[in-house]
Amino acid sequence: MKKGILCTVLSALLFGFTPVLASYTYEMGSTPETLTFYRNAMAIPMALVILLVRRIPLKVSGVVLRDMLLVGILGRGVTTLMLYSSYSFVGIGTATTLHFMYPVFTALIGRVFFREKLGFQKIAALVLSTGGVMCFLDPSQSAQATGIFLALFSGMVYAGYLSGMERRGLSQMDPFVVSFYMAVGVSLGMLLYGVPTGTLVFALPPATLGLTAVISLCTSLLAVSLLQMGIRHLSACPAAILSLFEPVSCSIAGAWLLQEEFALSKWIGTALILLAVVLLFAPAPRQLQRKKAA
User: Fold this and answer.
1) Is the pTM of this model over 0.90?
2) Whole-angstrom Cα distance, residue 212 to residue 127?
3) Cβ atoms of residues 194 and 200 within 8 Å
């Protein structure tokens, strides 16, 4: 369990730090669609080198390949597009906060479709973590129905990605094999979407490409692989709650590098998320009684 906690938290910290770097690439001529394409395309040779050095075969069954491509395109492609599209209708802070409702959606998927028992501790952790996320909401930003729907939908699809990783057995595979095929799937999907719509920018300055490569290494290779290992050891719902360290690290990085304000409400939100994590992994009363009896 400790390994799962560590992997998931590290994944969240990496995911949370990279939006600051992404904002720099937008200032240098990139676009959200371009960044999504390149960060996955650049991860392909990185993952391939790691697999060749470790002598891990790429051969998988047709069913597993289908699952990886489907889960990858939905979870890493559609999620990103929906979230980035919501920014046109509501502020980035509001959209990101709504997206991070995905632990609730993950729990609902597990309960409704897989009859997973939540229990008091998990429900309490979900309530606390949701309250913590809402503390990151900026009430001064406008809220339009289309943007709210897109942001919430991105969270729903990402919850499906987390559940799919667990339920389809992908979390048990070598993380770099999964990262390789998912990066291939998302790259092809973004080409099919970006070329007809004219949203992809191929001629980028060297500095932008270099920064994009760093983002690719941190997210599409390392963070995705760490999250997969976290799901393997914890299951989808606890991993989703631990992933809420992402908005915390994003806000800290914004305050550090972009001089954004880290308001009191964000400190409270951070404390609530930490309390939710402690409650989630604290021994249940019955377990404590058994230890005392032993």
Assistant:
1) no
2) 36
3) yes
